[in-house]
Amino acid sequence: MIGRGNSATLRPRESLPTAEPKSAHEARPVLTVRSGSVTTRRTRLELWGARQCRWTCTQSWSQGTEKAPNAVTEALVSIQRYRLAKRYLLAPIAPLVERWGLSPPPSELKARALRSLVMPKLVAEGRSFCREVEPGLRFQGNTKDLLALEVYLFGSRGWQPNLTAFLQRRLAPGDVFVDVGANHGWFTMHASRLVGNTGSVVAVEASPILADRLRANIQVNNLRNVRVVVAAAWSGPGELTLEHGPIEQTGITRVTSRESSSGDTRVRCDALCNLLTDDEVARCRLVKMDVEGAEFEIIAGLAGDLERFADHAEFVVAVHPSNASSPDSLDALMSIFANAGFAAYELPHSYAFRHFLLDTVPSSLHRLDDRPIEETDIVFSRQGDGVLDL
Q1: What counts of helices (H) and strands (E) characterise the chain?
Q2: Pair (54, 117) in one structural domain
Q3: Separation between Cα atoms, residue 222 and residue 188, nearest integer Å
Q4: 138 in a domain, yes or no?
Q5: What angle do CA 138, 143, 144 make, to 5 degrees?
Q6: Are 356 and 326 in contact (CB under 8 A)?
Q7: Spatial separation of the C-alpha atoms in residues 163 and 188, rounded to whole Å
Q8: Within a 13 Å sphere around the CA of 252, how many CA atoms are in the beta-carbon half?
Q9: What would the pLDDT profile of 78-110 be if each residue is shown by its tens digit?
Q10: What mean pLDDT value characterizes the chain?
Q11: 237-272 residue pLDDT tens
């Protein structure tokens, strides 16, 4: 039993046999409960019977939560059966709904049908694919992962279309783009084409597993102007603990300064400017950061280096207020940019299917004067005067 103020570890019952892990990502994870904060870890259960089934989920445990290992196991078994049932029940109709849902004209009903009837089938199936998202630009992934799933369904609008459009309207041949939290490389791929042979892209990714998927997309597109940095951007040099996101949403992989335990992955970290060359800093046109809460540490490490960037350089920062240690952390982030002459503009984004089908890309961004209370992208720019044209 886990009581308030305790730190405990839960594992699946020993009576359940488990397979040997094939890699660090496949290693059997644990559920960790820590007082004073919410810790999200993976839970993976190996089920054996006529066939072996594996299911990965996330569990968020807050201070004072009490659950027994057998209750967790029973819940996972129940959900696994439910998902397998949906996979086979939806198999006959999912392809028909997919064709109808993606056909013009788009509608709210089609978005709901895709979300309810097609997505569960594709996630359960885990379909590997490689599709052309722009002329001459291909993306490969597996539909079990949210990012790849949405690219599979929606193509060129498959991942954060507003931010993708912002890159397309900002980057030009010869520019330098820095992708902090590159993941599968969606923005890295697009930026590489935009900056051309005279420009360059620096893709920073802390997870070795995601870095391999990033390199795969670089290779399939034969991109020669991309430099991959397998490290975590942070406030300074050192090592951090990497917490892998679940297979269904690798985008929530994150780094943390907590002490490591057995089986944890440790990764190198450093201030962002230390991961870049002097030429890359001087020529940088755009920096994108989406690192699940580490943005606060990265910006703290950038405080003394923002003046090294050109006047036209801009930063797009994914801000997660719930990941801030306190409201003061968010105020500090905003102040660091304001003190360097940057104004904040909100760039809306959503992961809802209706966003990909129905929403249009804004033609301009309005200045953000108040502290954001929900997850959003913020563009920090020295350009614009209350309104930032795209």
Answers
A1: 13, 19
A2: no
A3: 13
A4: no
A5: 140
A6: no
A7: 12
A8: 17
A9: 666 666 666 667 778 889 999 999 999 999 999
A10: 80
A11: 999 999 988 888 888 889 988 876 666 789 999 999
